[in-house]
Amino acid sequence: MPDTPSDTFPVTQRSRIRRAHQRGSYVRDDVYAVIDASPLCHVGYAIDGEPYVTPTIHWREGDVLYWHGSAASRFLESVVGARACVTCSMMDGYVMARSAFSHSVNYRSAMAFGVAELVDDPDHAADALRRFVEGLFPGRWNSLRPMTRQELKATSVLKMTIEEAAVKVRDAPPGDPQEADVPVWAGVIPMETRMGAPVPAPELPKETPFPEELARLIASGRLR
Amino acid sequence: MPDTPSDTFPVTQRSRIRRAHQRGSYVRDDVYAVIDASPLCHVGYAIDGEPYVTPTIHWREGDVLYWHGSAASRFLESVVGARACVTCSMMDGYVMARSAFSHSVNYRSAMAFGVAELVDDPDHAADALRRFVEGLFPGRWNSLRPMTRQELKATSVLKMTIEEAAVKVRDAPPGDPQEADVPVWAGVIPMETRMGAPVPAPELPKETPFPEELARLIASGRLR
Fold first, then answer.
1. What is the dihedral of CA B67, B70, B71, B76, to 10 degrees?
2. Is residue A145 part of a domain?
3. Taking CA atoms, what residue in B is nearest to A150?
4. For residue B2, is pLDDT > 50?
């Protein structure tokens, strides 16, 4: 792709298809920012021409997205080798305008395309899972009871190299300031997702300290 | 479907495919509860065998899901008549266990299957849009500048009759109480999405009151 600067994903029919009339970006860092901020993603597959959309927790290393599931899942098995569309979306607010037509939402959404592959090397899979947990909760992996071979065997790690991707963001007041004479409230009702006060497991020994790293994560307002 | 009680969706290969080893429900009211609580959905289509997953705001009337978009969107145009999978997911918390394997998330997710259709009768489309706005923000429609014929023409309303659907919910402490002797904090870090303080549009006349219905909605903690 000699005409595509390396800091953007290629612009194709596939990644462009839903972006008519909308501001978007193919810049890798813009795409990554949304993927990395989103606590979950929705993975879409077409199996025998039927669409399936499943939510899951993803993680990313460079251009590679990872997710995982039960090795016993016939569904995960059936998607290995299939084309996938991974979409990460966060809703940031309702945009209340003067006309129904100008109502909107503020949001961030990234859409990435590629092929779902199984990470079949157990060492690679184990390492990916460790980076998944550490990426979410720094310091946690080493505090846990070590993963057993059995557990690793029961877990399928999937990955998808991002071939194409686009991000769309709306972060603005209502788009109809010219209608300010309509006597109705207009503006944005922000929407925010936060982590709340931790709820200890019922059987947790009372003296067990809450990890500082988790406390910092919660306080930061980030979701991962 | 004489053997299917009318309060559940049919259990098929399609709706069952990802539910191995997981608690789920096909009960209509359970499915509706998740669909109706979720501020957005992800719609998946397969176009020429390629999966696409796009976020949007949905609304529901009985077994019919609605969403909308720009009539100029080649994407929306291309999905009319296509099979669709609409998934609504809310993440309710991180479940922190003693092993990486037992880490999980609390969540609610509904997955519905059907065929995307265009609402091509303009009166039906206008009425659906009114019910969309009123469903989100009771009382708002009549306070707005009326929708023009032009605006209605520029809006495509899509609908999908739910043929099959399933819902999955996890709402529980960590699943490994037998490992309580592992010296690490275990429990749930709840995640909650809330609406925040409204931000008036810059040009909004200062004396414009904030609608009581919206204030009540924000205070209720519901997201729609």
1. -60
2. yes
3. B101
4. no
* Nearest one of B46, B44, B71, B70 to B55, comparing CA atoms: B44
Is A67 domain-assigned? yes
Could you please report the per-residue DSSP string of A115-177? EEEE---HHHHHHHHHHHHHHHSTTHHHHSBPPPHHHHHTEEEEEEE-SEEEEEEE--S-S-G
Interchain pair B191, A193: CB under 8 A: yes
Report, as an integer, the average pLDDT of B32-56.
96
ipTM over 0.90: yes
Name the domain count of chain A: 1
Return the CATH number at B90: 2.30.110.10
Separation between Cα atoms, residue B191 and residue B195, nearest integer Å: 14
Q: Would you call A101 and B40 a contact, using CB atoms and an 8 Å cutoff?
A: no
Q: Do B191 and A196 touch (CB under 8 A)?
A: yes
pLDDT at residue A9 in the model: 87
Q: How far is A204 from chain B (nearest CA, A)?
A: 6
Token pair in block for residue A76: 């995960």
pLDDT tens digit string along B134-169?
Answer: 999 999 999 999 999 999 999 999 999 999 999 999
Q: Give the pLDDT band of residue B178 (cuts 50, 70, 90).
A: very high
